[in-house]
Amino acid sequence: MTIYLVILLTVLTHTSFKGSRVLISLYAIEFGATPFEIGVLFSMYSVFPVVLSVYAGKISDRLGFRIPMLFGACGLMIGLLLPFAFPRLPALYASAVLIGMCYIFYTVTVQHLIGSFGEGHARTRNYSLFSLGIALTALFGPTTAGFAIDLIGHRSTYLLLALLPALPILALLLFPSLLPRLHVKHEERHGQRVVDLVRDPPLRRALITAGLVETGLELFNFFLPIYGHFSGLSASQIGISMGAFAAALLLVRGAMPMLARRSSEEAVLSGSLFLAGGAALLFPLVSSFPLLTALSFVLGLGLGCGSPLSMILAYNRAPPGRSGEAIGLRQTVNKATEVVMPLIFGSLSTALGMLPVFWLEALILAWAGALMRREAPVRKDETG
Question: Quick count: other Cβ atoms within 10 Å of Cβ 323?
Fold first, then answer.
């Protein structure tokens, strides 16, 4: 029962987080921000997580789950209240920095927690359930933000999103026994370095895969609000298009265990990356609401498997006692991607327009698909 409560609490916090990333783009446009400036805003979410993710994992390895999750949820709420209290562009930058700096502790810790609930097939099932919950937030967050913006405005939407983490904060404060205690083995940790994790070939491949998938996710989250706005879509229509992406995540993650059993994780990931590359190739060629929504759904089908598969692999391949650290290292790779790619995407779109950005991403995804296809027989030999 505990795992379902943890997923419910995470759905609330992550819905708020996902909604804020749509809201910050559209609010920045209202303040006259350029695509490059919006790219910088998006990067601010991930600057501190690049250096804090591994530390967050170590904290969860040593202190357990409750304290870092509580810290992350409180930081998320305060970060969302800043633009409500100070409705100007600098407050958006401060909000993005604070949310990113604090919420990474919740993100890394809850992924570590889900992995601790079981082993083998039970762990795979638990991560699949968790990834379905995260997919729901990709549906609820953008659609909630989009409709709320049209109904009550950007500033009040920040207040609405800030209310969502309140229940998780209260639950973690009032019911400390809600989360299991982490049984830490007090062993000497001298000589253990992060670089040792990177040197492990199977773990390194899982990290590379996570980063490549993240480029596609970041392109969609960053560019669809901007592209939809300049294509004449309302905030509600942008939210619906992003909700279609989330619906595809739900569908493909529900089918992921069956697909992997019939072939392999690498084959599933390879095919899905090729599909995502094709969708990215077509994106800049359409501008109508129905076609953008349809392509968002196809892109979601292509990118949906990558995150849960890389999460499972990172946990399973971590050395004993360092699973939280490995999960944090995976987040470091993801957050570094989230820092760099919006700046690259924003700069390219400002100078050359949006078409080269989508086509560059299509090439990256196609290359990643080819890499996974070549790697598949190697992985089978390694893991049996």
Answer: 21
Q: At what angle do helices 47-63 and 89-116 cross, to 10 degrees?
A: 30
Domains observed in the chain: 2-175+195-383 (1.20.1250.20)
Query: Which tens digit of pLDDT belongs to each residue from 23-69?
Result: 998 899 899 888 788 888 888 888 888 888 888 888 887 888 889 99
CB 265 within 8 A of CB 314: no
Give dist(CA 295, CA 366) in Å, integer: 17
Query: The pTM is what?
Result: 0.73
- What does the pLDDT look like over 304-332, one tens digit per residue? 877 777 777 777 777 776 777 777 787 78
User: What DSSP line would sit under 185-221, residue for residue?
Assistant: -----TT--HHHHHT-HHHHHHHHHHHHHHHHHHHHH
Whether 97 contacts 273, CB under 8 Å: no
Asked whether the CA dihedral 268, 258, 332, 13 is positive or negative, the reply is positive
